Amino acid sequence: MAYLFYYWFAKVNGFAARKSKILRNIKGGKLQQTFVCFKERFRDKRRLNIRNRKRKKTPETRCRCEAKLRVYIDSRCGLWYITYFLDDHNHRDMSELDIMQLSKMRKVGISTP
Length: 113
Known about the structure:
By secondary structure, the chain is an alpha+beta fold. It has helices at 2-12, 45-48, 96-107; strands at 17-24, 30-37, 68-74, 79-86. Strands 1-2-3-4 form a four-stranded antiparallel beta sheet.
C-alpha cells in the first residue's frame, strides 16, 4: 500500500520510484521499508569491471538523487507510519512518456538501470 502511494506521488511530481531497503524482524516480517527516486545512488562498481561480461555497458543514468520515503510498519495493528520524507531532487523532472516507458519495461521483466 505504501509503495502504491509513493508510486503515484512520484508519477504526479515527474519522477519514478522504486523500492530500496527493507528492515526485517527476527521472524522475517517487515518492520521498515524505504522507497527512493529511480535515480538514487550510482551502480555498484564491482559489477561494472567483470572481465567476461556478456552484456555491453550501458550509460549511467543515476545521479545520486536524495528523494526518499521511509515507512515503519506497526506489526501489532498493521498500520504504516511515515518516519522520514525528503523531496529533494537534483535532476530534471521526467516526462509522462519517460515514466510510462520505465513502468512498462519493469512489467515485462526488462531491468532498468
